[in-house]
Design brief:
Protein name: Acyl-CoA dehydrogenase family protein
Strand order of the largest sheet: 1-4-5-8
Shape: globular
Pfam family, one: Acyl-CoA_dh_1
Number of domains: 3
Keywords: FAD, Flavoprotein, Oxidoreductase
CATH architecture of the largest domain: Up-down Bundle
Organism: Pseudomonas juntendi
Number of helices: 11
Largest sheet: 4 strands, mixed
GO biological process, one term: fatty acid beta-oxidation using acyl-CoA dehydrogenase
CATH topology of the largest domain: Butyryl-CoA Dehydrogenase, subunit A, domain 3
Helix content: 40-55%
């Protein structure tokens, strides 16, 4: 399969690569060092706002909004693919260009389903990079890989909704810039399973919304963005904060997850590619037992396997993006399941090989590798764990090949 990009897209690729080299990579250590030296880790390093201003001035802003010419670049998923991979080479990269999760999914959701009031109040500030947002779906008491099992209740009381529930792993909620959550809960437990859920906008300063704690990923609090455990205790918001129709929450969540899974996989491919390049540089410079590490056969095998693994995942992800553009999420869902199974595991393995080649440097804060490894391992759970995608994919294959 051959993908050929227009001159417009190729120009964006070239400009984005230069921007990453000139500005983003040099700022990574400053960004993390600022947080580590701060008395309060939940602060925004000034360098991030400087980078965002530069990116916006350079026209490298909101590139992800496929199909929405009014809000973003109007690129298709396939055209956005190489850009997402380049941004994913740095863990601070996506935010610099206002292309970071969960804001990307929330912006797409509001662009597609939001009212004009919701777009003015919440979407426009997100597009401007003035605020952040979060998506509250996962719960500690139920298997959230099955969204129909959600227990959080959203009950109507006159012109208001009253929300009671317990959520966790709400990514971005501890961020001091997080202005609102999109909360998914049950409005009608007696409806068919996929019509019980509704999504509503909840401002972070709403009474009864309590952040219990930030959660750690392999011991890292992921500040200043973080992942929150949240209690909703009689949280009251207007019914006008509902997104879409009552009972449409599951459908809306699925439409949000399709592009989001492609974006995650592309960013992970970028992570893996950078890890491979760092590995090649490291082993060429390092000498042990009288010769360069790059002359060791096992090192060369790891590099060769990594090259193959990355290219296979890249091509499969491009195919999924292309099919989603030409058909629909429903028609592309098998390919999306495939990339969600393949890409995070691939990235985890490639980064692990790079860590091994770096030795002690590979597991400390002086390298981007530990955070990249944690990111890859986490995405094997986020947006549907491996087993859910494999079960769906296997079930479809059995039905198709035995029809």
């Amino acid at each position: 399969m051959h993908f050929e990009y227009s001159q417009k897209v190729q120009d964006l690729i070239n400009r984005l690569e230069r921007f990453m080299e000139d500005h983003v990579y040099p700022a990574e250590h400053e960004y993390h060092d600022y947080i580590d030296r701060s008395a309060n880790r939940w602060v925004i390093p000034p360098v991030m706002e400087e980078l965002k201003a530069r990116a916006r001035s350079a026209g490298l802003w909101n590139l992800f909004l496929a199909e929405f010419d009014d809000y973003g670049s109007g690129l298709t998923n396939l055209e956005y693919a190489p850009l997402a991979e380049i941004m994913g080479r740095s863990l601070i990269g996506p935010e610099v260009f206002n292309c970071n999760a969960p804001d990307t999914g929330n912006m797409e959701l509001l662009a597609r389903y939001g009212t004009e009031v919701q777009k003015r109040q919440w979407l426009q500030p997100l597009l401007n990079g003035e605020i952040r947002s979060a998506f509250a779906m996962t719960e500690p008491a139920v298997a959230s890989s099955d969204a129909t099992s959600i227990e959080c209740r959203i009950e109507q009381d006159g012109d208001d909704y009253v929300i009671n529930g317990h959520k966790w792993w709400t990514t971005g909620a501890p961020d001091p810039r997080c202005a609102f959550l999109i909360v998914m809960g049950k409005t009608d437990p007696h409806a068919p399973p996929h019509r019980q859920q509704t999504q509503v906008i909840v401002p972070m300063d709403t009474p009864g919304l309590k952040i219990l704690r930030p959660l750690r990923v392999f011991g890292d609090d992921d500040a200043p963005h973080g992942h929150a455990e949240i209690l909703f205790d009689n949280v009251r918001v207007p019914v006008s904060n509902r997104i879409g129709e009552a009972g449409q929450g599951f459908e809306i969540a699925q439409s949000r997850l399709g592009p989001g899974r492609i974006h995650h996989c592309l960013r992970l491919i970028g992570c893996a590619q950078r890890a491979l390049e760092l590995m090649c540089s490291r082993v060429e410079q390092r000498v042990a037992f009288g010769k360069k590490l790059s002359e060791q056969g096992s090192i060369r095998e790891d590099i060769a396997r990594s090259l193959c693994d990355i290219e296979q995942a890249r091509l499969l992800t491009l195919k999924a993006a292309d099919k989603m553009d030409r058909t629909s999420y429903k028609d592309a869902r098998d390919l999306i399941s495939m990339i969600k199974i393949v890409a995070p595991t691939m990235a985890q393995q490639v980064v692990d090989r790079a860590i091994q080649a770096h030795g002690a440097l590979g597991v400390c804060q002086d390298s981007f590798l530990p955070r990249a490894f944690a990111y890859a391992r986490t995405i094997r759970l986020a947006d549907g764990p491996d087993q859910v995608h494999m079960a769906a994919l296997g079930k479809g294959a059995i039905k198709r090949y035995t029809a």
